[in-house]
Write a structure and sequence with these properties.
5 helices, six-stranded antiparallel β-sheet, alpha+beta, 25% helix, elongated, 6 strands
Length: 163
């Protein structure tokens, strides 16, 4: 479908359903700001999600993933327990899920550790959108910072949104 083609009513409805509740509330969300529009995403649009990681999050993820390294189960010399990297990576994943984005390729760069009690703010940016038959091909970038404004995670992803 060319970029200038108008979406059919069922396609619009499906896209709107996927974007209308962005961002949704969850118990681990400290706050969430920003929203993607209820129309076709466009390059340059941003969305933000914030959450604070808890000891229970780390324990549950350890059980689910099997990632039970000592740095995730016992406090270090400063009394800190490190959050699993892939648990930290759920912050940008949440942004994609809110827009029914299906990732095909993701690159994560873990810049510094995240610890229990840290509040992470992730900003996602739509870098590119191309219309294809039955889907949007979308490229996103993301940058996650802790409560001190320090980068903890950054990356890019390419995927689709079904129409």
């Amino acid at each position: 479908m060319p970029a200038s083609t108008t979406l059919s009513s069922p396609q619009k409805a499906r896209l709107i359903r996927g974007l209308a509740n962005f961002p949704t509330a969850a118990k681990s969300i400290k706050s969430a700001v920003g929203a993607l529009p209820t129309t076709k995403p466009e390059a340059g649009q941003k969305a933000t999600y914030q959450r604070t990681f808890t000891s229970e999050d780390v324990r549950a993820f350890a059980e689910l993933s099997g990632d039970k390294g000592i740095h995730h189960t016992e406090a270090d010399a400063k009394g800190r327990v490190m959050v699993q990297g892939l648990l930290t990576a759920t912050t940008p994943t949440k942004l994609g899920g809110d827009m029914n984005y299906i990732a095909r390729h993701i690159v994560y760069e873990f810049v510094r550790p995240v610890y229990v009690g840290d509040t992470i703010t992730c900003e996602g940016t739509v870098e590119k959108v191309e219309t294809s038959e039955g889907r949007l091909n979308v490229s996103l970038s993301f940058l996650c910072r802790n409560q001190d404004g320090k980068e903890v995670l950054r990356g890019t992803t390419d995927g689709i949104i079904r129409l």
